[in-house]
Design brief:
Elements (H helix, E strand, L loop, with lengths): L2 H5 L2 E5 L12 H13 L4 E3 L12 H15 L6 E3 L5 H14 L3 E5 L8 H14 L4 E5 L1 H4 L5 H7 L5 E6 L4 H11 L4 E4 L5 H6 L4 E4 L6 H12 L3 H18 L6 H9 L19 H12 L5
Parallel strand pairs: 1-2, 1-8, 3-4, 4-5, 5-6, 6-7, 7-8
Length: 300
């Protein structure tokens, strides 16, 4: 296993992008969130993914968010910057900009909307990896992209020295096992589904890129570390604790509930970009999130 691949283990947080009441990126809140994550023991940070509302950030805003996160992290944890697009040219531009900022690696989503064949995916990811000499993690989330990269395709891509891992968000344990078989032990296999992270670890996963760790970083880190240490009873107990919170955080479109939870923790406003919308403090889900966080000791 290469030294680069070893970086992508443990719990990486798929960061929200805090915004002010006018919908502008809130740099101070973002910096505060990064510090809270690092204090919670998180192993890495992932700005500008799905949870970070990358789809509604302008190109300039996207690069700005990555810059803030990378600057505040200051090398204390790896920064895996979302830099994907359904346009190969745009993905290359974003990856180049992220490399100039000094991030650890980029995360590249399977091209959405275009519905490329597997051969098109090979060309897409290979073109990015050839153009930008920086480690890349492929992001497979067919529930959002429609297109689904197959394990055999990842196996072909894994031969490229810059393509070092995958965020597999299918919640399919057989798929995870297939990826491990096709790509080998050196390839980083990261879960993209909080509901199934524990069984994912059990079939050979190296970690998780988590939404829930925005709200409960220590809980998710403790779960991962219990599993890694072979304390399976403790890992199982923590898994069921986080499931209560996970169900609420995915009760409606992500990251609406995550921002509502972080609002109660003083780490974000409720503001989202349209077509998503803010959760009202009068929404029953807002109160349910608060009650769950109090039960877990996250909120006084």
């Amino acid at each position: 296993m290469s030294d680069t691949a070893k970086i992508f283990r443990g719990v990486f947080t798929a960061l929200i992008t805090p915004m002010d009441a006018e919908g502008r990126v809130d740099d101070d809140a973002l910096a505060k969130l990064v510090e809270a994550q690092i204090a919670g023991g998180i192993h890495g940070l992932v700005p500008c993914g799905t949870t970070g509302e990358a789809a509604t950030l302008s190109h300039a805003e996207h690069i700005h968010v990555v810059e803030v996160v990378n600057r505040v992290a200051d090398g204390r944890v790896p920064v895996l910057a979302g830099a994907g697009s359904n346009s190969t040219r745009e993905a290359i531009e974003l990856a180049r900009a992220c490399k100039e900022l000094g991030v650890t690696a980029t995360m590249q989503v399977v091209p959405y909307y275009n519905k490329p064949p597997q051969s098109g995916m090979v060309r897409h990811f290979t073109a990015i990896a050839d153009a930008v000499d920086l480690p890349m993690v492929v992001y497979n989330v067919p529930g959002r992209t429609v297109a689904d990269i197959q394990a055999e395709t990842l196996g072909e891509l894994a031969r490229h020295p810059n393509i070092v891992g995958v965020k597999e968000a299918t919640a399919d344990m057989y798929r995870a096992a297939q990826v491990r078989e096709q790509c080998g032990e050196a390839f980083c296999l990261m879960s993209g589904d909080d509901f199934t992270m524990l069984p994912f670890f059990a079939v050979g996963g190296d970690g998780v890129i988590s939404v829930v760790s925005n709200v409960a970083p220590k809980l998710i880190v403790d779960l991962y570390e219990a599993f890694a240490a072979g304390r399976l009873d403790a890992a199982r107990s923590l898994h069921y604790q986080q499931l209560r919170l996970t169900r609420l955080l995915f009760a409606t479109a992500n990251p609406i509930p995550a921002k509502a939870a972080l609002h109660q923790l003083g780490l974000s406003s409720l503001t989202l970009r349209s077509p998503l919308h803010d959760m009202s403090v009068d929404d029953p889900l807002y109160a349910q999130l608060g009650a769950c966080m109090r039960e877990l000791g996250l909120l006084g």
